[in-house]
Amino acid sequence: MHEYESKLLSFLKESKSADVESICSGTGLGRDAVLWASESLKSKGAVEIRVNSGAEIEISPEALGYEEGFPEQILLSELEKGPKSLDGSVNGIALAWTKKNGWADIREGRLHITEKGRKALTGEYDQESVLKLLLSKTRGNGDNIAYVSNAEMTKIENTVKELEHRKLLQIKPKSRIESISITDIGIEILSGEKAGNGIGQLTRDIIKSRIWTDSGFRPYDVEAPVAEAYPARRHPMKEFMELVRRMWVSQGFVETAGPMIESSFWNFDALFSPQDHPTREMQDTFFLSNPEILGIAENELLKRVARMHKKGWKSWNDDISFQPVLRTHTTSVSAHNIREYGNSNELEYPIKLFSIGKVFRNESIDYKHLAELHQLDGIIIGKGIGIADLKGTLEQFYRGLGFKIKFKPSYFPFVEPGLEASYYDEEHGDWIELCGGGTIRKEITKALGTDMRVIAWGAGLDRLMFKYLGISSLSELYKNDVGWLRKRRPLKL
User: Fold this and answer.
1) Is the link from the previous residue into 291 a cis peptide, with omega within 30 of 0?
2) CA-CA distance, 306 to 320, in Å (whole number)?
3) Which of 69, 128, 306, 421 is most buried, by CB atoms within 10 Å?
4) Dihedral sign, CA of 41, 47, 48, 53?
5) 132: exposed, middle or buried (C-beta count within 10 Å: 0-12, 13-18, 19+)?
């Protein structure tokens, strides 16, 4: 048994029951030590703790100035002498509460006392009485906080709410320990402790005097309750992205990365998205004013992409292509990768690449949409590959995460044919889109300088959190709820 527990039980054996302050005074233990020891002993059935539920009420500095009388009481005393003109000299707070209480009314531009007001002059004002009661409970504590039990609160609840509405009080539910009592089990434990031999706590003096060589030590209770520890941990999103990385690397993929600020050329044009496509409008894309333009280093590449647009969409504008944007997908990274790795004499095909990063869309916010999200993009560059390879790759990945998915045909400007993968979310009763992909169009691969076939996909990572972390809205990932971050179950990497 810990030293604090022994002191607490010894004290309670004599007094049977006591409050925390009395125990602190009688044992010399601090408040935290007494609370820890009492909770520990309670778990063993050695003590009973009687809790009084109530509230802590903090009194504002403004309310402290009303101890000798509220503004409406002062105004009422003045009205007793005669009506007052409403010329701006009347205190606004006093006027509002005087009228609310029915103590005065306005006639012919002047404020007159009512019969109810005259009665109030000789009676007690509830707000003043409650304030004085609360102040009496704060005397000497220096923090202007009064503790009120539930029984006391029942009698003054309406008036307290009025004062809270006036922002004169701040109420916080609070429970306090009323008393701690020793049980029969506690007496038995204390008797056994005193009857047993050995040292319970090693101190510097005991070591110096070598008393421990004769007395020995009491057994150490390895099942005794201890304070919960919260070691440093990664944010669940970071932890999950690391899991995703390992899964793709285990399938033979290599991670790549790209800039979050992109030109419209790489974000849209290189992926055969028409320059007048709705997704480029301000409601979907964040355009940047600084820098004003982002040029394209390879002039020949720019010409090939321009020819692709003129042939496919019958329009092209260099200035639109140079507009800087916050990337709307990590598919822009895949476009760079097709250009860089699509035509190499040194690499062995097929080449498997993936990227994970933050993307930005001017979305309407709801439980599955935010303006910022994390996206996974992947491509396989090679010969003789197609939709069957894409479906097999995605099924293997999502199966590893515990998702059973379904595919359906879908349209994306940069793939033909295209598909979409979804899973059914039981909690929301909704099919949640996981990713879209397909075979990159030949017009794109040719413009980016390769004759290889490319299969590609883009997936939102945040939505996987619904099932994997048991959250109900993406916003929960960004609330910085320390309690949840500490106690959530760790992901198995």
Assistant:
1) yes
2) 11
3) 421
4) negative
5) exposed
What is the reported pTM?
Answer: 0.56
Distance separating alpha carbons of residues 379 and 438, to the nearest angstrom: 10
Asked whether the beta carbons of 64 and 57 are under 8 A apart, the reply is no
DSSP structure string for 429-464: TEEEEEEEEEEEPHHHHHHTT--SEEEEEEEESGGG
Over residues 78-137, the pLDDT tens digits come to 888 888 888 777 888 888 898 999 999 988 888 898 999 899 888 888 888 888 888 888
Distance CA 423, CA 417 (A): 21
Whether the CB-CB separation of 132 and 67 falls below 8 Å is answered with yes
Helix (H, G, I), strand (E, B) or coil at 415: strand
Kindly list the structural domains of the chain, giving each domain's residue range(s) and its CATH number in brackets, ordered by start: 237-487 (3.30.930.10)
According to DSSP, residue 481 is labeled -
Identify any residues that bridge with 456 across adjacent strands, giving them in sequence order. Answer: 379, 438
Cα–Cα dist 147/398, whole Å: 55
CA distance 349 to 453: 11
Instruction: List the beta bridge partners of residue 454.
Output: 381
User: Could you tell me if 409 and 438 are in contact, meaning their C-beta atoms sit under 8 angstroms apart?
Assistant: no
- Helices then strands, each counted (H, E), the chain: 21, 16
What does the block give as tokens for 409? 């045909």
